[in-house]
Amino acid sequence: MVDNHRKAFIRLFNETACYHHRYEVFRDFVMMSGISIHNAMVFSDEREQEYMDIVGRYKKDDAIRMSHLLAEVVMGFEVSSCDFLGSVFMELELGSGHIGQFFTPYEITKLMAMMVHGNEINSLSEQSFITLSEPASGAGGMVIAFAEIMLEKGLNPQKHLWVSCIDLDPVAAMMCYLQLSLMHIPAEVITGNTLTMEFSKIMRTPAHYLGFWDSKLNQRWSKNESSETKLNEETLKVLPQSNVSMPTGQLSLFDVVI
User: Fold this and answer.
1) How many CB atoms lie within 10 A of CB 87?
2) Neighbours of 222 (CB within 10 A)
3) Is 187 left (phi over 0), alpha (psi -120 to 50) or beta?
4) Which of 24, 91, 172, 252 could disulfide-pair with 167, CB 3.0 to 4.6 Å?
5) Higher-confidence position of 106 and 188
6) Are 134 and 186 spatial neighbours (Cβ–Cβ below 8 Å)?
7) Angle 170-182/60-79 helices, nearest 10 degrees?
8) pLDDT: is 178 or 220 the higher one?
9) What is the average per-residue pLDDT within 185-208?
């Protein structure tokens, strides 16, 4: 059961680097794990240096425990789709009430996804994939729930779904990147403000590269150059070569952009 891996994660986490604040340890674990996955696919000297700076703050035994924590996350996803990191984050009471940072329980997230996905999944009978925009992704729970619904309908989200996620908090954004990477969901995860359209970092999951999604998206969008779903190039100065596509106007939790 996935609960066994969550319990193992929390037990091991509480034994790791007691000389640091609990939030700092969780943040560093997420950052190191995400960077490791990213650099295995697209190496970045800047992110490699960030990794080295983080791991340098830990004793050897604690750095090894970090890898064991990641193993528990991986095994948790092998058992069941879930917002693993969001759930342990809340169980460890790491959320900030001051900034309103709380992760919705996955059962509620799944219910919300079932209520709002509409007929978009059914449109796959007319096209090869759908795209999903999540403007306040948190740890990616909504996307994971949407992907689970696709699986229940006999559709493979690894082939028929591409996602653009945005979150203001760098830690939440990396949690999202890590979980979508482990689920092999093609996606790009952006750190930035959806309301002001100011972005600082973008990372694409391994599935994005392995599935040649740059080509697939360009082919889709080249047929609809005048569509309002394409972002103004001026807006994306901070994100060169981005595939982000956001509709104008108010966003729903699941805005499907085609």
Assistant:
1) 22
2) 8
3) beta
4) 172
5) 188
6) no
7) 60
8) 178
9) 96
Question: For tokens 């700092």, what's the residue?
Answer: 24
Residue listed under structure tokens 């359209």: 197
CA nearest 209: which of 182, 185, 233, 191? 185
Number of residues assigned to the chain: 258
Q: pLDDT-based confidence at 49, cuts 50/70/90?
A: very high
Residue type, position 88, single letter:
V
Q: Count CB-CB contacts under 10 A for residue 243.
A: 20
Confidence band for 35, pLDDT divided at 50, 70 and 90: very high
Helix H or strand E segment including 239:
none
Q: Rounded to an integer, what distance in angstroms lies between the CA atom of residue 176 and that of residue 190?
A: 10
- Which run of H or E residues covers position 106? helix 106-116
* Closest alpha carbon to 67 in 29, 23, 119, 93: 29
Q: Where are the alpha helices (DSSP H) in the chain?
A: 2-14, 22-41, 45-55, 60-79, 84-91, 106-116, 141-152, 157-160, 170-182, 206-210, 213-222
Which token pair is 147?
């992907």
**pTM of the predicted structure, to 2 decimals:** 0.83
Distance CA 111, CA 206 (A): 28
Burial of 5 (C-beta count, 10 Å sphere; 0-12/13-18/19+): buried
Question: How many angstroms separate the CA atoms of 117 and 255, rounded?
Answer: 9
What HEC string does 138-153 produce? Answer: CCCHHHHHHHHHHHHC
What's the number of CA atoms in the CB half-sphere (13 Å) around residue 27? 13
Amino acid at 80: S
**At 183, is the secondary structure helix, strand, or coil?**
coil
Look up residue 20 and give its DSSP letter.
S
Among 179, 148, 174, residue whose Cα is nearest residue 73:
179
User: 122: which DSSP letter?
Assistant: G
DSSP 184: T
